[in-house]
Structure formats: C-alpha cells, structure tokens
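In this section we turn from sequence analysis to structure. A common task in structural bioinformatics is to predict how a protein folds when a small molecule is present, because the ligand can shape the pocket around it. The inputs are simple: the amino acid sequence and a SMILES string for the ligand, here copper (II) ion. Study the lines below before reading on.
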Amino acid sequence: MMRMVTPPLAPFVDRLPLPSRLIATEHDGQLTVRIRAGEHRFHRDLPASSIWGFEGTVPGPLIEAERGQPVTVEWRNELEGPFPVSDTVAPQPTDADGVPVQCLPGLSGGEPERHTAGLTGHTVVHLHGGLTPASYDGWAENIFAPGQPAVFHYPMDQRAALLWYHDHVMGITKFDVYAGLAGLWIVREDRERDLGLPEGPPFEVPLLIQDRNFDLDEQGRLTGRLVHKTDPEVMEAFAPFTVVNGKVWPVLDVQPATYRLRVLNGSNARTYRLVLLGDGAPELERITQIGTDHGLLRTPVPVPADGLLLASAERADLLVDFSDLAPGSELTVLNTAAAPFDGSSFPVADAENAADLESLLPYPQVLRFRVVGEAKVRRPIPRELVTDYELPAAEALARARRRAIALVEHEREDEPSMLTMRELAVATDADGGPRVSVIDGGETTRYRVVAAHFEDMTTFFPMLGEYEVWQLINLTGDTHPIHLHLDPFQILARHPIRYEIPEDGIGDRDLAATITLGRDPDDELDHAIDENERGLKDTIRVNPNEIVEIAVRFTTFSGRYMYHCHILEHEDRDMMRPFVTMAPELMPFMA
Ligand SMILES: [Cu+2]
C-alpha cells in the first residue's frame, strides 16, 4: 500500500512567474546575456535560494527570434563561486521509516560532495534544437571560464519552434543546469502568425517544468539551499518538488479563453506524464497538441489517452480551451509518471492517487489554472497546420546508411554504474571477440562494438543531405530520452525486442548480447508511436525492450556534434558520443 508524506510547502499559493522577454529584433539581433550568481525564491514560504542563472534569474530570459534573422549572443560568463547547490549521495536509499530519501528534503545523512562544492563557474552554452554551426553549438569540452569571452552566432534559419538554451559542460551539466543555467528560446515566423495562434502574453504561456530539492536546517526547517541528492540505488536525482518557471506548484489566472502553452521538461532526469483534472475528473479533451520539439505538427492531435508524456528536453505546443468555464473554476495539472521512468502507463482516471513514494513521486502536483473574468475568447483550431515535412520516401530509406547503437548499463563493483552507448558495426567472420546478434525472423546480423566511451574514436560521419537510419537498442530497464544535436529527425518504428546478456556480457568496452525482434511475453509496454511523436523531433524516448528506429538527415553544417541521453546524470556519466557531419565533396579526402 502506498504511503504519503505531507508536503512541507503549500501548493498553489504562488503565481506562475513569466520569464522576462528578450526580443532579438528589438536589439538588431545583437544580445548580451550575463551568466551570473543570483538569488531566487522558489516558494512564498522558502527563504531565498542562491542560484546560477542567465541574467542571474531562474529561468533565464525568454529569447524570441525570427526565422531567417540571425542572432548573435555574447554569453558573458560572470559566474563566481561558491557553487550554490549541495550535492550528495545519501548513505542509504531509505530513511529509518522506509521512505525513499529522494522523496525527502535535506541531505539524508550524506556528506556534501567536495568536488562539486569547489566548482567555480566554468560553462558552455548549448542552444537545444538550434540549427547551429559546430563552433557555436556548445561542444561539452569547449568551456569558458569566468571572464573568458564567448560570442555565438545563431543563423536562425530554421522552423518556428520552442528551443531552450542551457549549460552543457562535460561531466557537470547535471549540476550547472540544476543550479539554474537554463532558459527558453522561441523561434517565430510569419507562416505561424498566419494561423492566428496566440503569440506573447497573455494567451501564450511558456512553461519550463523542473524538479528541485532543498536543504534542511538543524530544526528540520527548509532553508532554500538547493540540494542535488542521489542514493546508493538510484544514480539520478529525482527531486520531490515540481517547479514551473521557477516556482513550486504555482497557480495561473486564466481568462475563459484559448491559451497556447509552450511546455518544456527541463528536469535533470524526471519524466512527466501530465494530466489535467477538474473536480477530480480528467479533462484531457480540453488540450490539443499542435507542435513538438521542432515546431508545428502537420495537423493538431489529441494528447495520448493517459496524458502527455515529456521526458527531459521534450517539448509540446498545446492549445487549451478554458472558454466554457465560469469564473472561479479551477483545473489542476498533475504528473502520474513513476521515477525512474520505464514506459509504464498509469490510468488517467486514477491520477488523483498518483502519489507514490516507491515511485519517487511524493507530490504529483504541477500547476493550477484558476479562471477569472467573463470575456470569452475561443479560437478555432486550424485543421491543417503545416505541409513542409513528410516521412522520407521508402526508396530513400532503402538505400540509407544504417547505424546501430546499444544503450547499456555497465555495473561496476564498489562504484556507481556507468550508462554508455555502444556504437555497433557489422562484424565479419575475421573479427574476434564478443558479438551482439540481432535475430529478425530467419535473419541474424552480428555486430561488434566499435566505440564505447565519449573519448573513443569517432565512427559516425554522416554526409550532409543523405538520409540515414539509426537504431537505438535499449538493453537497460529504464526509458532514455536520446537527443541528437543539429537537425531534427523523424521516428520510423518502435520494435519490441527480447534479449539475453550472458554473465559478464557487459564489459568496459565489450558487449555480448542476443537480441530477438518480437515481444517478450512478460512485456507490458505497447511500444506504440504516439501521434504527437510523428512530427520533427530532436529527443526521442527509447523504452526498455525496444529498438527505436529514426530517420536522420543533416542538412547544413559540417562539423563535430554530439548525441546523448538527455537524462543529465546519464550524459554526464558517459551516455554521450560524438558524430561528425561531412559535406559530400570532402568525403573522398577522409582517411
Ligand atoms: Cu539515459
């Protein structure tokens, strides 16, 4: 039976803050953003927290750009220590009462990690979803220290979409983003304006959803100091308090009108399954999804019947109809996704009972809407949104280069696990060593591992303009949101698989596994592609027991980029690899 813990903070008392707007055209496309330490109040009843933020705020300013009008940002690193977050590994996964420590504030007996405490403000900024030249993409090792200049040019030659910018430093992205280094970036274009969608306040509302935890003083009172806590069994931080635009469980006053919500899950690790409840009953039919990671879908779609799933870095563009509601009506957004997330469903009808300590979900609350005013503004929803993309033709896919990547957890004695990506190449009979066999009906393909760690040699050299098919093979028990930098991609398939890994089959570099296409009888996931995943994506959920196939095509910029799991604790612990995009004319000169 589930146990509950009483929230130490009152929900729905703070107003939803809106980030300050920084409109590029009002500055001739020349922006300066200072990256600074600051103070931020996450809740009315919390003392101010020390943070690191863009312009010293949580979240950073909302940058708004126009398609085709380049933006130059001078990212001015003015950070100074000490690092504002206490990082700790609690000695036990549960407290004396059996409550998982990640559901509780404070350090839970852990020591503050001294290397994290010693961070002094190295950063590099990545514009997630940006079609950006490699030099300005925020390569995780091209770091700038406080005082060192970084002027990045963003061509903005890309579709209107909600992007976001955040720190991307090798090994410490999880700390820097958690400290506050994230902000939203919207690309706009006239094609979208022609559809009459809301733009700007009050009817377009950006929502950056994150989870955060705080320290306790000796009397057990919340101090406001940010805490990044893991435990011996869970290497990701799943913080108990959901924060939207920097406030714990805020409330937004809405008119009886159609609102456009631009939603981003900017959490380190937590996946949200968002549901909308009025008087305890689901009201998901009020929501129409019109866009995903890289902008508008071809046609509007309902959100999935169980709720809107967003893993770390996924975005949704939503129209929500409040127009029939009387003043004083309230609608509440709850999260029903267990952590760590493994793709399991949760019935929307039970959403009010989603709180579950074992699932590291002590407080499902996210956000409340409160209807005020009388004037009704209901907008018709266009039936067709865009026509500028479609699935690649079968013949293009048939001759496409295929790449395979296995996602594996490498467990190590007396050390935390490493989550790694194993790039696979088809093995010849002459190749020795362990094999990954993929059995598809009567056909078996055998692979060997050609790269296992970030610093291993680059093996992916996609040619500009050419379609490729990448297979992401999940051999772990959790869902991984895999993100490719640069161009968006499209999902082609989710294939259920069953697999066997022999004892010691996962080594530091080696991998032995037998993978069979087809469903495991014990597998309860449906491995379906949701309607809202059929747009242009840059982050895709790869569930346990499945291979996700994506059609990838890089179009514009040659250079060195990264792809990785967007669970920040995973990307920082080696679930990241480089790829180099190449102009076709240069390929003959590649050794
Ligand atoms: Cu991952």
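Residues 419, 480, 565, 567, 570, 575 surround copper (II) ion (CB under 6 Å). As an exercise, try to locate the residues that line the copper (II) ion site and compare them with your own expectations.
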